[in-house]
Amino acid sequence: MARPADDDQTTGTRPDPSRRSALLTLAGAAVAAAGGAWWWRSAASASEGSQDAIATPSEPLPRGRAPVSLFYTSAYVGAAHAFETTRKAAWVAQSLIEAPIPGLQLTTHDALTADEVLAVHAPAYVEAVRTGEPRDLAQSQGFPWDAALWPMVVASNGGAVAAARAALATGGIAGALASGLHHARRDHGAGFCTFNGLVIAALQALAGKAKRVLILDFDAHCGGGTHSLLGEHPAVRIVDVAVDGFDAYLPLGANTLDRVTSADAYLPTISRRLAALDGDRFDLCLYNAGMDPHEGCPVGGLAGIDAAVLGERERMVFDWARQRKLPLAFVLAGGYLGPTLAQDELVALHRLTLAAAAQPPR
Ligand SMILES: [Zn+2]
Asked: Where would you find the membrane-spanning parts of this chain (predicted)?
């Protein structure tokens, strides 16, 4: 997290850089096989002008239910710098080839155009990410720039937009294997987040038929970038439950930011915040489904939050949305390897989100 945000009212701790460096080395080794062999089959629902074909699980879909679209393209992992945020989508996609989740359909989509990014981000910053100059601005999210960064971030941010469009179109759930969004500001990146696809998706939805948008941010870290861009928007409400003080902010209006410091309080806090939304009406929920609250994550983890807790969190969120017939679009968000969290375990954590998204309500 190379550059403190200018408008960031951070009050909490930041990850120790040396620990972070060790973590990234570990991650780099772990992703060596991430490219892997792909099993290609064009998704039936792939849009015209798609960037590439996409592998689709061959499992039969449950009867009577439309599949949940899960957006992904190989460009999501194009940047040269290899760590969780730039490789994790491929790990999860590969896991779906090897062990499909019934009811979930990997689907390709178009990348964002520069104009779509410019609707939220400053021209000088967008140009820096595209060209690499000035380099400190191009790398303000905290990892080295290379020419594949721009195609990567317009693809992965486009996944958030595609998921929001699909959720609105179907009235149901859709997702994207995107991460690295919620710390990004208008004029620079932060905390491994280059552009803020949550904000781009919210504003595009509001420019269409959506009248009000809810953003649930249950990543371990606070979503200060999202709040800096939408905290005063009258048609957006942000519910942020974090377990780490990085990128904290003072929530404006009806927005809320909880920093949970005890695992015992984690699910009750989320349950209470969801219940408090019952009197409000939304047309779309954008869900930043970070797995970095897991106790094994060196960046963000809280002791006592394990896979069972996070699985229950995901069931709570998706059941809550389904019971209200609220269209929901989710992205992966944070999740980091550590001495006690191996790559397959991290993938399994993110699959908790996918499984809950694909399941019928309890
Ligand atoms: Zn995080």
From this structure: 21-40
Q: 93 alpha carbon to ligand 1 midpoint, in Å?
A: 20
Q: Is residue 138 part of a domain?
A: yes
Q: What is the CATH number of the domain that holds 223?
A: 3.40.800.20
State the total domains in the chain. 1
Q: Helical H runs in the chain?
A: 17-30, 84-98, 114-118, 123-131, 135-138, 149-170, 197-207, 224-230, 266-275, 307-323, 343-358
| C-alpha 29 to ligand 1 mean position (Å) | 21
pLDDT digits (tens, 9 = 90+) for 273-322: 999 998 899 999 999 999 999 999 999 999 999 999 999 999 999 999 99
* pLDDT one-digit tens code per residue, 121-172: 999 999 999 999 999 999 999 999 999 999 999 999 999 999 999 999 999 9
Q: Reduced to 3 states, what is the DSSP secondary structure of residue 35?
A: coil
- Tell whether 77 is covered by a domain: yes
Q: How far apart are the CA of 290 and the centre of ligand 1, in A?
A: 6
Is residue 28 included in any domain, yes or no?
Answer: no
At residue 16, does pLDDT exceed 60?
Answer: no
Domain membership of residue 18 (yes or no) is no
- Encoded tokens for 307: 């896979």
Count Cα neighbours of 163 within 13 Å in the Cβ-side half-sphere: 34
Q: How many angstroms does the Cα of residue 274 sit away from the middle of ligand 1?
A: 20
Q: How far apart are CA 8 and CA 10, in angstroms?
A: 5
User: Quick one: what percent of the chain has pLDDT higher than 70?
Assistant: 81
CA angle 320, 341, 75 (to 5 degrees): 70
Largest CA distance in the chain: 53
